[in-house]
Amino acid sequence: MTREVLLRVDDLVVGTRDGEGREVRLVDGVSFEIAEGEVLCVVGESGSGKSLTMAAVLGLLPTGVEVLSGRVEYRGEDLLGASERRLRELRGRRLAMIFQDPMTALNPVKRVGAQIARAVRLHGDRMTRAEGDRRAAELLASVGVPDAAARARAYPHQWSGGMRQRAVIAAAIAHDPDLLVADEPTTALDVTIQAQIMELLAEARQRTGAAMALITHDLGLVAQTADRIVIMYSGRIVESGSVWELFDTPRHPYTAGLLASLLTAESASGRAYAIPGSPPQPAARPAGCPFAPRCELPTKSERCRTDVPALRAMAPGHTSACHHADSVSSFAQEVTR
Ligand SMILES: Nc1ncnc2c1ncn2[C@@H]1O[C@H](COP(=O)(O)OP(=O)(O)O)[C@@H](O)[C@H]1O
Ligand SMILES: [Mg+2]
């Protein structure tokens, strides 16, 4: 089955300037596609450029950070050249966002129900106040908020973090969006609540048929959620492919390291693997492969320190940016043992 491409990001470069006015690339040549109804997970450690990539797509980059080059298309429409008005319309109705902290989306001094009703009205549907309240309560009930009509009259601070995130998801799906962009939607929540919110997102997706871009630093979260995964490191994509391929035959030592950390975390042997070191600051990215200083591949060579590896196809739909992609599988088995 071929599904229409919903979002196409092509060679996106996002940058800022350092104290001396030098250009610093925070996202460096990122390309990916999301098809209708598909779940793409963007995975990488904190600082790898995941949030800025999606912020650039949605026209929500912070002040001082800008798109330097590249192309972003939503159903063939150029988004980087789109007006603020058009972007706001798309974000309200077609491309919905869910952030780590639900309070970024909620107004602390307005009742939750009124905010949901306002979101519904703002992006199209005309209705009376009573209808708005009823629709808000329905939406809240549909995302599992108990006693929704009464709770809708409370303020966000009277709600738990998990319930607030439910409210944000209710608002996000109110207009049947094409794409849900969820940026670390469970990171700020208790572990017990995280699974419930992931389940709710899956349900919401099924109900609306929306595609989803799920951003996470937690590879463990994606196994059951994703169709495809993009692994980011230091502003670049280092590997991408279907979930089963990346888990089964990783082709980049960073992916192998993330997998090994995940799989050995609760292992009986008690030897938990951790990738040594930490990622470089964008302004101090090393020449060559940005992962080379932390790389433990036995085949690591001089070339890794001098030449930036390009993303290349390993199999249909599976790409890796490693000079030694062929030796990753045996390394992965070694460190996961
Ligand atoms: N407003 C900003 N100004 C300058 N640098 C920023 C800004 N926001 C993020 N960065 C830097 O850009 C890089 C990527 O950030 P981000 O996309 O937030 O990473 P992630 O979401 O993967 O944790 C990081 O090094 C971060 O410090
Ligand atoms: Mg982030």
TrEMBL record:
Keyword Cell membrane among UniProt keywords: yes
Pfam families, sorted: ABC_tran, oligo_HPY
InterPro entries: AAA+_ATPase, ABC_Ni/Peptide_Import, ABC_transporter-like_ATP-bd, Oligopep_ABC_C, P-loop_NTPase
Entry keywords, A to Z: ATP-binding, Cell membrane, Membrane, Nucleotide-binding, Transport
PROSITE patterns with a match to the protein in the record: ABC_TRANSPORTER_2 (PS50893)
Membrane topology qualifier: Peripheral membrane protein
GO molecular function terms attached to this record: ATP binding
Every ABC transporter domain range: 7-259
Location of the protein in the cell: Cell membrane
Main location (coarse class): membrane
Family the UniProt entry places it in: Belongs to the ABC transporter superfamily.
Protein's name according to its UniProt entry: ABC transporter ATP-binding protein
Species this chain originates from: Microbacterium flavum
